[in-house]
Amino acid sequence: MVLRPRGGRARGGQRAAGRRRPARPAGARRGRRRADGAAAGGRRPHHPAFAAALRGYRRARLAGDDAVAEALLAWIGGQPNVAAAAKRFAGVRGELDHFGALGFLQGLLTVLRDCGHPGLLVVLDEIETLQRVRADVREKALNALRQLIDEVDSGRFPGLYLLITGTPAFFDGQQGAQRLPPLAQRLATDFSTDPRFDSPRAVQLRLTGFDLPKLVELGAAVRDLFAAGARHPDRVAALVDDAYLAELGKAVTGGLGGRVGVAPRIYLRKLVADVLDRVDYLDEFDPRRDYRLTMSSAEMSEVERNAAAAVPATSADEVELDL
Questions:
Q1: Which of 175, 90, 182 lies closest to 145, judged by CA?
Q2: Angle at 17 (CA atoms; ends 14, 23), nearest 5 degrees
Q3: Average pLDDT over every residue of 45-61
Q4: pTM for this one?
Q5: Within 10 A of 30 (CB to CB), how many other CB atoms are there?
């Protein structure tokens, strides 16, 4: 799946792409990929160093050698400059390159499957930043992305769901996916039709602007997740109902000049840290009675501060003068 938000938020005019696809008939054209990585052919062997590093990690843990265990985890994660002693302990050598990384990903999916997990979600966020790197680095990155999409489509990574987020400039601009025609072909989606009838199974998904009902829906999902592990789930559900979520959403967006698109981060932060935690742990706390929203510039991002600065003054006393 390929999404087109910026900074993790959906904005008007942006898109997203990806889907789960049914198996194609044998010999069908491989211009698309299945995001779930369902098997579509023979599997390649896993990278042997991945298993060796895992075995070394387990032996180090059992022996109480935390330094070696942590070093091996860092090597599996692709960190450079791992101590040679730790690599000798596990019988591995060198550093992890991009070819080995795909083998490690394949091995990780096998481990997750054998542990009873359904799969793995991999998110490549803000992919539009590739447009700002050197041309040679950008070309390599675009080709690696094309290769990864093809590998998912071939069935090499069963259980993997690949989600790519980026702005329209990356997908349609000449400094992005369009620089590599094979990648552009794999991501091509027709957005000339009515947005109301966009297919949820298309390669790209167009994200509409964030509005207050969607903000409340997001808050309700977070509240329900919080309540599932809360000490007093019934109290959380009663005091932080959908009506209160809407009130909090209006207050946050009002403090940001009515720009709902920049509100989700600080809205969720206030909801969890200032409201849900207190409702769960403080028996006398009622958010409608005891909580007043405050937002300081220190806790805001630059975009949020700019939105807050655009809020018009309601009285002469609120106008700051530089004397």
A1: 182
A2: 165
A3: 87
A4: 0.63
A5: 12
